[in-house]
Structures are given as structure tokens and as C-alpha cells.
Fold this protein.
Amino acid sequence: MSDQNRLSVFKTYKLYVGGKFPRSESGRVYEVTDSKGQWLANAPKSSRKDARDAVVVARKAFGGWSGATAYNRGQVLYRVAEMLEGRKDQFVREVAASEGLSKSKAAAVVDAAIDRWVWYAGWTDKIGQIAGGANPVAGPFFNLSTPEPTGVVAVLAPRKSSFLGLVSVIAPVIATGNTAVVIASADAPLPALSLGEVLATSDVPGGVVNILSGVTAELAAPLAAHQDVNAIDLTGADAELAKELEIAAADNLKRVLRPQPVDADSTSDSAGWSASPGTHRLTAFLETKTVWHPTGALGAAGSSY
């Protein structure tokens, strides 16, 4: 059969929830277009129930993921980078179409996103030394502070940077032992949905990262008010929505990461996101546990430990 008589097989994009690829329970989809308004694909339009279901599986996955060694989490994140390297061409095409970039610029963005996974993979077993330590106290005690993951984190992905910005908000959340419910960019969700396919084959346990597409405000509202969501990253929210979500998040004292100046950058090729990320996103969703341990006397000499 000649190529001219062959029908193209269009990709069906699905959500990524609990390590599986469901369609939205509502059955809804919406059209995703490129920067010139040309149709790219139909993406699932997630419902509030999809958001609640994602929280359930994220909570179930939290114990195992947070209990894994930091070294093991680093290996898993590095594996994500390996798998992305093998599918680079696909993501270059999707990023170019989603953000209106040339192929060379899209390739640079994808390379930076892969490097970003490697960056955070290296931090998994080092952040404890930065965020914790031994505290000097008056009295016969050891006083030790250690960082622990906050829990389930709702993440509103950047609106413009559909891949590098997306990776930059997901990787630090899971690197520190949290689980994530991610709302992809409404205008450019395809790289995020494809990332779910990579995560599913990268040793990331099901439920650690859950990716939803749809209307950001519709999905963010139930997550901000959800009593089993411990924190929320407002990166992809505009000022008005961020204020509403922060008020809702106060009901159960969620940790809130407010939008940063880089998040509001209107450029899609992510000049701000390509800068060194530092550690502020790693520490944003960590709690500090402080333990007091009494010292004891060793023998008649009165020395202590």
C-alpha cells in the first residue's frame, strides 16, 4: 500500500493517575492547538472527581515513597532522565508545537529539562545536610533537626513553559519524598501528558506523580480545599486565582508556594526557568523534625556521650 493511501494514526492522550492512563471520568475532551491555532490533539478535560481520585492514590503512594532511601529516590529520578533521553525527538516535536519554538530552540529546552532531572536526582541524598543539622543547646542533650516530606502536594504547572517549567516544579517535590497531583498547562498540556508515559516506565511507583489536564481553575479549587492535600504550588495560577486558592488552602493550614517572578515570564522559551534552580523548591515542601536526646554518664569519671 502506498503512503498516500495510508491513514495516519493519531496519538490518544490520556491522564496519568495511579500509574495508569485513564480517560477523564466525565468523558470530556478539549482541542489543543499550536501557536498558530492549528489543531494538535484532543486532550482529556479532567473533572473534580478526577482530582479527588488523584489525591487518593497520591496519599496511598506517599508512605512507600517517603520511606524509600534518599539514594533510591535519586536513582529513580536519574532513570527518568535516561528514559527522556531516549524519547528526546518526540518531546522536541511536542515542545516546538506547544510553545511555538524552532526545532533547535525546542531541543535546547528538552535538553535543559533532562539535565534538570539529573540536577534534582543528585540532591535527594544531600538536601538533609542543607536543611537539617545538630543544634547547640544548653543542657545534657543532643538536639537534632532533620527534614521530612510534607505529604501530598498539588502542583499548578507553569502556563507558558510546558516542559522545562513543568519538570522544574515536579522534580523537587518528589525528590524530597512527597507525592504530587499535577495540573498541566491548560493551553499546552501535551508534553505533560507524554511525561506520564515516561514516568510509568522509569521505576517511579504508581501514584507518586499524577498528571491531570483541563481547566486549571476548575481542578485547582477542589485540590486547594481538599483536607488530604498538605501543600500547594501556585506556579501556574494568575494573581486572582492564586489569592482564591491561598484562602481555600488556609482551611487545613497547607503549605503554600506563591508564584515567583519567573512564573509570570511571558516568554515560552523559559529564559528564567533555564537558570540554576537553587534549592528553594526542594525546601518549600519539607517539614523540620527536631529531636531531643539526653546524654548519659559513662562510668565513675563522669564523662558523657
